[in-house]
Amino acid sequence: MVDIKSITEELNKSVFRRLSEVADSVGVPCYVVGGYVRDIILGRKSKDIDILVVGSGIDVASRYASTLGKGASLAVFRNFGTAQVKYRGLEVEFVGARKESYSHDSRKPVVEDGTLEDDLNRRDFTINDIAVCLNSDRFGEVSDPFGGISDIEKGIIRTPLDPDTTFSDDPLRMMRAVRFASQLQFEIEGKTLAAISRNASRLKIISGERIIDELNKIMASPRPSVGLRLMERTGLLQLVLPELTALKGVESIDGRGHKDNFLHTLAVLDKVAEKSNNLWLRWGALLHDIGKAVVKRYDKRTGWTFHNHNFVGAKMVSSLFRRLKLPMGDEMKYVRKMVDLHMRPIALVEDEVTDSAVRRLLFDAGKDIDDLMLLCEADITSKNREKVERFLGNFALVRKKLVDIEEKDRIREFQPPVSGEEIMRIFGLPPSKPVGLIKDAIKEAILDGIIPNSYPEAYGYMLRSAAELGLKPVEAAQTETPSDNK
Length: 486
Ligand code: ATP
Ligand code: MG
Fold this sequence. Notes:
alpha+beta; seven-stranded mixed beta sheet; 25 helices; 11% strand; binds adenosine-5'-triphosphate; binds magnesium ion
């Protein structure tokens, strides 16, 4: 017998006592089901409680909301026969037990009222298929028809019914299987995994939004490579992110090979995930080398090259984000920047760590410089320890220089010391090309270390650059160097 003490303890919470009274008063069988029960057994935090009602979920939800009084908000989705009650940060979802039958070309089933058994039969995995009764005469009674508790203990993901039918009916479940494996660090049972491979192409009937939800949960999991490898093995990755599967494999000419850039990418991603929960930095790691498949060349003298893969990769980011329905605003720009700049710290080490190169890196990376350095350090996946130590040592040097120069020149959140408006006013210019040229000249002079990042120096430099363009200040008084009070 499995120890389900955790469930009994959980049911002592006032929300379940209240739900029990409501279920009795409406006179219908009521159960806690799904992810919530799974997470109690796993000792994991769960956001929302799923309640299954053999009867009308909406009726039970309304009654429950009215017993809570003013602070509760009730949302009813008549089309789906579901309802949701929010109360003090707790979300409870109510659904009536149903029986589902699917047609081939849609994941929208024909739905009829059903029994508890029907409802458990339509669920995705045994670990999500445990119901605990809330009615007072059977309070705490566990229904576990498919051995879900034992699968949770063994860490196994398996469909309750024939996996081919389960996945063909609703192909999103394939992504969910992989997501749970990655999130919970569980294993997908052999037959279930084989069925995912067989049904992978059915994923095309699933909307992009649903797929990306699951993919982001994989990306947010402790070791995202677990999920991505499973996606690759089953053929799902080829459908969702062909740019990544294109990085797979090692080609060899004249006995010279290159590293497998897919495996390298996964290693970098996991290393970043160890250090940071930032989803977008993880995306940056996943995509940092996608340009490599495009620019790969073999040269008889130098061997394999991937020139400009960072630039080409960065150019691929926005269309990839658009296709995957990822956010096109700051998140996309940040990921694009990570891909674009990921070779810069290395190049800096290889050439010479000059102040102006460090200043330019600080300027281009801005507030994201620490994330970029983290990505670049994770990018060193060589097996040669001596090489790794040398690189990390050099990066430590770069980091130190970054701190020194930032302290001195404040480049990280660079604001032009003389604004465009001021330039226009001083020289009596309309918005025009010379204004940009002067502003740019000042910025370049600061980045090259010709002048420090300060207002009086920038002001003087502005006068000199303007003079070269044949421009003079409109009022002589303004040529005096003002004090540094900006
Ligand atoms: P999480 O909330 O962490 O994403 P969950 O298991 O609670 O995980 P939900 O999407 O909240 O997932 O769904 C609640 C329950 O509904 C699941 O535990 C499962 O029993 C069932 N379920 C959800 N989606 C499907 C599906 N596509 N096919 C079959 N059953 C599903
Ligand atoms: Mg849930």
